[in-house]
Write a structure and sequence with these properties.
- This protein folds into two domains: about 1-125, NAD(P)-binding Rossmann-like Domain (Rossmann fold), CATH 3.40.50.720; about 150-315, Dihydrodipicolinate Reductase, domain 2, CATH 3.30.360.
- The protein contains ten helices and 13 strands.
- It has helices at about 10-20, 45, 80-90, 110-115, 135-140, 150-165, 195-200, 215-225, 255-265, 315-330; strands spanning about 1-5, 30-35, 70-75, 95-100, 130, 145, 175-180, 205, 230-235, 245-250, 275, 295-300, 305-315.
- Helix 1 (about 10-20) links the parallel strand 1 and strand 2 (about 30-35).
């Protein structure tokens, strides 16, 4: 039996992870759930959707006792907090999947420039594995530290990767336009996430400075084997969860929409959670709501010689907790789809 400890389990990503894990068919046991806010309270009283599934209590974190209780730790805590825990956890011989951004980037200077904090365990940045199975599946299997991808980057990378890999788009003019539900901001209220400010309202934010930009650039650069910079504009839209990313890429050779769809279909044919949609069908967030699927659609704008690649994910599913379960399955030899073969919720 694989025993899992989730640190920060009461937040949106942590609680969504619990929702996936309670029905996992493999030998996985939720052995520990910590929450500084709700320590001592029953999990199903704080998260009523888990009534009848979990009756244990949230606990305060005792980091030195982890080795006696769990085999792997999932860190569902913010950036900077994660890096304060990771070295101590690895020293106990435990494996880690980290929700935060602390180990996604390969370069400490880049991390510090975009996140505006000093990285306190830079030596571990080169040992972590970026947790996107569609790119790093074999490395994830044996990893000690998996850096779970960000939600925006997951959608942008999966939308752009096949054409970047095939070398049929210009690499100096990629535009990523993303719309996200407000749950991506976490449970703590703010002016931007306040209902009165979000209802019937759509707003762009952090244009040119969003922290997920270097993550998108790092991974697409690795695919292309040369440096890539992107223009990334995120938006908040009046829905709770979901991301739709539209990626605009300039074509350097003629191609039809049908041929583009064929390239993507072949590229992702063995990927259980990437669904390439038929010609003329475009992704929608409700089709992936509550799931680990990424729906990809394509259209060639022949007049402007651009490919428009679209990807829809649930930011808390494939963009967070679903990806963690997919990574856990790889790390412990379960079927990659275990606990994740659930369709989206429509309407």
């Amino acid at each position: 039996m694989i025993k899992i400890g989730i640190i920060g389990a009461s937040g949106y990503s942590g609680s969504e992870l619990l929702r996936f894990l309670v029905n996992h068919p493999g030998k996985l046991e939720i052995a520990l759930c910590t929450s500084e806010t709700y320590a001592g309270q029953r999990i199903d009283s704080v998260l009523p959707n888990l009534r009848g599934f979990l009756s244990s209590k949230f606990e305060a974190l005792d980091i030195d006792s982890l080795k006696d209780r769990v085999d792997i730790v999932v860190l569902a805590v913010p950036h900077k907090v994660a890096m304060s825990f990771v070295p101590q956890i690895l020293a106990q011989g435990l494996r880690i999947v980290d929700f935060s951004a602390d180990y996604r980037l390969e370069d400490a200077e880049t991390y510090e420039a975009w996140y505006h904090v000093d990285h306190t365990s830079t030596s571990l940045m080169s040992t972590s594995v970026y947790g996107l199975p569609e790119r790093y599946r074999d490395c994830i299997r044996s990893a000690q530290l998996v850096a779970n991808p960000g939600c925006y980057p997951t959608s942008a990378i999966l939308a752009a990767m096949p054409f970047v890999k095939h070398g049929i788009v210009a690499l100096d003019s990629i535009i990523v336009d993303s719309k996200s539900g407000i749950s991506g901001a976490g449970p703590k209220p703010s002016e931007n996430t306040h209902y009165a400010n979000r209802e019937s309202n759509c707003i762009a934010y952090n244009i040119g400075v969003h922290r997920h930009t270097p993550e998108i650039e790092q991974e697409l650069s690795a695919v292309a084997s040369e440096p890539i910079r992107v223009t990334f504009t995120p938006h908040l839209v009046p829905m709770t969860r979901g991301i739709l990313s539209t990626v605009y890429m300039q074509l350097i050779e003629e191609i039809s929409t049908e041929d583009a769809v064929a390239i993507y279909t072949n590229f992702y044919e063995n990927e259980p959670f990437v669904r390439v949609l038929p010609t003329g069908t475009y992704p929608q967030t409700k089709a992936v709501l509550g799931s680990n699927y990424c729906d990809v659609g394509l259209e060639v704008d022949a007049r402007t010689r651009r490919i428009v690649a679209m990807a829809a994910i649930d930011n808390l599913g494939k963009g967070a907790a679903g990806a963690v379960v997919q990574n856990l399955n790889l790390m412990f030899g379960f079927k990659e789809t275990d606990g994740l073969k659930v369709p989206g919720m429509m309407p």
